[in-house]
Design goal:
Blueprint: E1 4-11, H1 15-26, E2 31-35, E3 52-54, H2 59-63, H3 70-81, H4 89-103, H5 106-112, E4 141-143, H6 147-164, E5 168-172, E6 174-182, E7 185-194, E8 209-222, H7 231-237, E9 250-251, H8 260-267, E10 272-273, E11 278-286, E12 296-300, E13 306-309, H9 325-333, E14 339-345, H10 346-352, E15 354-355, H11 362-365, H12 369-373, H13 382-390, E16 394-397, H14 400-411, H15 418-430, H16 440-448, H17 452-457, E17 473-485, E18 488-489, E19 496-498, E20 504-510, H18 532-551
Helix pairs in contact: 1-6, 1-18, 3-4
Length: 552
């Protein structure tokens, strides 16, 4: 078997892999970019994303009246990450570097490539704790014009231009099975050539072998993603602090997100740290028109929906919609059930329900300004209404008793108590008689509407859920939705993969989700949102530049 040679091999053609390849090619290096999926899957998970990016102190923020700073962002990051392990030394340094990047050149760098953002900055992960705790103190979630495909496009253009110049060769349907190690140094990869596949993007492709390959290079950059579609691996790494792993989960990522390269790189001598840190959503709904197996979509909720557990009890503060993803997950898993309910009104769904994913936001993804402007008209966005009509988790009724009966029918387990639901809804509604309240969620609704972006496009005017004028009533069953791997391959600030003794494993680098978005866990225990795509870009860029500098 002939061994193809290059300056560098990049394993994984997602966003981090594209960023690393683009930087290497710009430095004049010859790159082999490998991926086990077909060419139309270029861009990986990023293609399916909402395209949210965390920036700090931007023109968009300032136009919305938001005062932000690198100091405030770092305070929020550290309070959220809660680094507490010896192996968090490099992740902490990555976090400091990333916040500097987000407050510095990140926006200008992407803007120069043609990227633009929706003018209303969203406020994700609001925390609900004290100033030094988890959460974003201010809105920082910038939605890319074009969503996930709009984030991928500039890097795909750079890579394809490098292909035209003869610097990059694309090798799709090439699955890496081993890193080649000679005298303690990674010198290449070997693996299986998979049969061609004509499946649509996101659908499972075949794993039929039609050959083998081996490639050599002075550096291998692993950018293969996380474990989100491998539910067995998710459960294997599930931390005790989050309770018993769910029996039923939806997948927020396509099936090829299998985590294979983590074990392969570890077998070559690399160290995996923080495998128990992960980021799964609690507001997943079954996709009525699925693309991949167990395909779930996340609701991006405003703060007004009433959140009930499977028995009908209200979730306690600060486990409110949009406040603390992992805190809420921990609470839910402590209830003995792995699903919950939103109860809301038509007025709330029209203003507050967004759906994560490029395919669920055709106006933003397609850069259709006329369609975007329809969001301010009466009625929920088309994709949301489609879920309300076709989604297995949605029920609608004019009166609460009828709604509860439909909820019980959907759940099918008999645990929802009608009296408990009624008591919770009525008690909440009594708090809406005055413009002030002791109810933390009602207080948060009033507070949110002081931010212009929330008042314009995100938070419904406070009202009683049982007000007939705000109806009909809606309930949505929510599932646990797998998504991101927060731990991963341990790397230094040059993205070099480290061994268990803390020294670099020669010849191998890692970036993106496989490296915990930097260092083996730049987010610590929790994320501020808008930091996953940005983490891929920053760590991919870092790896590409570091390899180019090392090669000279």
């Amino acid at each position: 078997m002939s061994i193809e040679q290059a300056d560098a091999i990049v394993v994984g053609a997602g966003l981090a892999g594209l960023a690393a390849t683009a930087e290497l090619a710009e430095a004049g290096k010859r790159v082999l970019l490998l991926d086990q999926e077909p060419e139309h899957s270029l861009g990986g998970q990023a293609h399916w994303s909402f395209g949210g990016l965390m920036f700090v102190d931007t023109p968009e923020q300032r136009r919305m009246g938001v005062r932000d700073s690198a100091e405030l962002a770092l305070q929020d990051w550290m309070g959220t990450a809660a680094f507490d392990r010896p192996e968090d030394a490099w992740p902490r340094r990555w976090a400091e570097a990333y916040v500097d990047f987000a407050a510095g050149e990140k926006r200008a760098w992407l803007h120069a490539m043609g990227m633009r953002w929706f003018p209303i900055v969203m406020w994700a992960e609001r925390g609900g704790y004290l100033a030094g705790g988890h959460g974003n103190s201010v809105p920082r979630f910038h939605i890319t014009w074009g969503t996930g495909p709009g984030v991928v496009a500039p890097f795909e253009r750079r890579v394809r231009a490098a292909v035209e110049r003869g610097l990059v060769q694309l090798r799709f349907r090439h699955r890496v099975d081993d890193l080649v190690v000679e005298n303690g140094t990674v010198t290449g990869v070997r693996g299986t050539v998979l049969a061609p596949s004509d499946t649509e993007r996101g659908q499972a492709s075949n794993r039929d072998s039609v050959g083998e390959f081996e490639m050599g290079a002075q550096a291998v950059v692993v950018t293969s993603g996380g474990i989100g579609a491998n539910h067995d691996l998710v459960r294997q790494n599930w931390p005790a602090r989050l309770g018993t792993p769910p029996e039923h989960m939806l997948s927020g990522v396509p099936e090829h997100v299998d985590g294979r390269m983590l074990g392969i790189t570890e077998n070559a001598g690399g160290q995996i740290i923080n495998p128990d840190r992960m980021w799964h959503y609690t507001e997943g709904i079954q996709n009525w028109n699925p693309i991949w197996a167990r395909h779930g979509i996340r609701i991006l909720p405003g703060p007004s929906s009433l959140w009930l557990d499977a028995t009908g009890r209200r979730l306690p503060a600060p486990y409110l919609p949009g406040f603390d993803t992992l805190g809420t997950l921990e609470h839910i898993m402590g209830t003995g059930h792995d699903y919950t309910w939103f109860v809301l009104s038509q007025r709330i769904i029209e203003k507050e329900f967004g759906l994560s994913g490029s395919e669920q936001n055709p106006d933003l993804t397609g850069k259709d300004l006329k369609l975007v402007l329809k969001r301010v008209l009466p009625g929920a966005p088309g994709p949301v209404e489609a879920f309300k009509e076709h989604g297995a988790d949605f029920v609608v009724a004019d009166r609460l008793p009828a709604l509860i009966e439909k909820m019980r029918a959907v759940a099918g387990d008999g645990v929802l108590d009608a009296d408990t639901v009624t008591r919770e809804v009525v008690a909440r509604d009594r708090e809406l008689v005055n413009p002030f309240s002791k109810d933390v969620q009602v207080m948060s609704i009033h507070a949110a509407r002081k931010y212009r972006g929330d008042r314009l496009a995100r938070v419904a005017s406070p009202h009683q859920i049982l007000d007939p004028a705000a109806g009909p009533l809606i309930a949505v069953r929510l599932h646990i939705l797998t998504r991101k791997t927060l731990g991963g391959l341990h790397t230094d600030l040059d993205a070099r993969v480290l061994r268990a003794d803390g020294t670099p494993l020669p010849g191998v680098y890692a970036a993106g989700e496989v490296a915990g978005f930097g260092g083996g866990g730049v987010h610590g225990y929790r994320a501020l949102e808008g930091t996953f795509l940005g983490g891929c870009l920053f760590s991919g860029r870092t790896a590409g530049r570091a390899v180019a500098a090392a090669l000279g």
